[in-house]
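User: Sorry, folds how?
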Amino acid sequence: MDSSGRILQFDRNAASVLCPNGDALLGARLDEVIPGAHRPLLEALRAGRERTAMLAVETPVGGLLDAVVTVHPMSGGAPEIAALAVVKVPVPLADRFVDPAVIRRALLDDALPRIGSTLDLELLARGLMDVLVPHFCNSGALMLLESHIDADEGPQGPDGPQLRRMAIGFDDQDPAWDATFPTGESLVYPQETPHALCLESGEPVLRVLGGEGAARLASSWRRPPVAELLKGASMLLLPISSAVGVLGFFVCTRNVAHRPFDAYDVEIGMEFASRAAIFVESARQYSRERATALTLQRSLLPTGLSAPSPVEVHHRYLPGSRLIEVGGDWYESIALPGARVALVVGDVAGHGVKAAVTMGRLRTAIHTLAGLELPPAEALERLDSLMRTLGEREPHFATCAYVVYDAVSGRCEVASAGHLPPLLVPPGTASEYLPVPPAPPLGVGGEGPIVSREFTVEDGTLLFLYTDGLVENRARDIDDGLARLRATFGPGAAARPLEDLCQAALDGVYDDQHRDDIAMLVARLARIPADRHAAWELPAEPAAVRRARGLIRDQLARWGLEDMSYTTTLLASELVTNAIRHAGGRIGLRLVREGGLVCEVFDSSDGRPRIRHHDEDDEASESGPGPARRGPAGAALGRAPHQGRQSGVVRAVASVKGG
């Protein structure tokens, strides 16, 4: 058109839709052909940008069509051409499947490449049906063999191969389709039906059902509504095949108001099915690998959390969205002797089976190190050494936050290797992120040891550990996520149920289609009652052994545990004697009633006791700087070589049943 709206050029579709006599369009004004089109033309020319309007267009046969009219201003080329108008009108139903070229373009060129980018099998199935209906048929379904979807499903049952309806499509808005052919249904097609023939032969099957054909299908399927829904329909079954065989087929039907399928449709449909098979096979393999990794990861995560009686622990684990592979996030709560608990949250870099396997190795190592009661910093150094060993063949990296809480003293010791800071929520005050001394992630290595931080918490304090999937995503900066999390644990949070806090922390993450997996651990910390523990400090001299026995006998008498005095005093004598002979300095003695009776002796040495069993050679007992001493259970308690720590505490711990 020129600037006045006079039509200078038009295509054949415009002539067939807008004017009985195509030649009459040339020289006519746009608003004469499409009433109201002159206004968007003027707006487009004035603003230099396209304008769109919904207008009514009268067809040559006298009907009205709702048309989307878009006017594009044009510059350059012929000076008289000022604008281009694109008029989009719905194709009449009777003519929808007439032109094979239009069907081929809609089926193979426009939407299929975009749909093939997804690896989610259910999303892919719905996308494929949105292409088939309405561009190729009036109704359809995608059927896949259960044995190709579920690895645990057998290839064939006693009645035949089992298929699952992944998606359906229909264009008449009749709810009977959903009721008769429910999505997700598993079924076996009877022999001699077109569906069984297509599955067995791997070739397309074309049938014109008519009234009797639809009635026979309804009878064999025992579904009366099928007779009415498919009455007179033309049905085409398109097999989906890959290197492993026939995966399933598309069911395509056209009703009596449209042209039935012919050889051209079979050719176009098979080309569509061949391309779709590549996408289906990729999504099927991805779904299986993801299910394997998810099963492996869930089997490696803890099934139960342990902690001292006054400490309440709650956890949540949320796998990544379907668009993200399984990750390596994990959590641990491990009860330790002497009313202590180790709280751990970690995240292995990467996704998939390898990340899940590495996570399982780290969890096993964490349990071993926690059982040795290593301080958090030393435990993470051991993990770092393990990760570097695993990385000799293939690099492995992980972040980890490790906390040990003593429910007797209320002391926390925290260390972190590249992990996000824990959130501390004291009762009655604002929450804060703990400024833990930074250290590189596990497996990276770096100069200097990992350093921990110690502090005392009051009863009722919340400690929240989490992975980065909770506070970081593509649409939100990590600082915003940390601020949101801190607001979640605002005033009054320390008194709320832990389940409610976990749910509040997860609000808003479920809708993220690119969400990473999330692990979180929240603990309400509290001390054990004062009448369930006792502690003393002893000098490093021989008389301290007798003093320790007397203190223990008196305390056990107050607890009503006189029958345990002999065993406990004998054990304490061994531990205090070892501390005097091999450590020096002041000695701490502690009795704790928590899940039994625990006797602990502390000294100021940098070494760590090591248990040697009675069947070891005498040479093993000479590996330390001093002789080993036998305990009452037949085990020898010796001191390990110096570990290179600048300061620390050594605990020799033994538990006695009862109490």
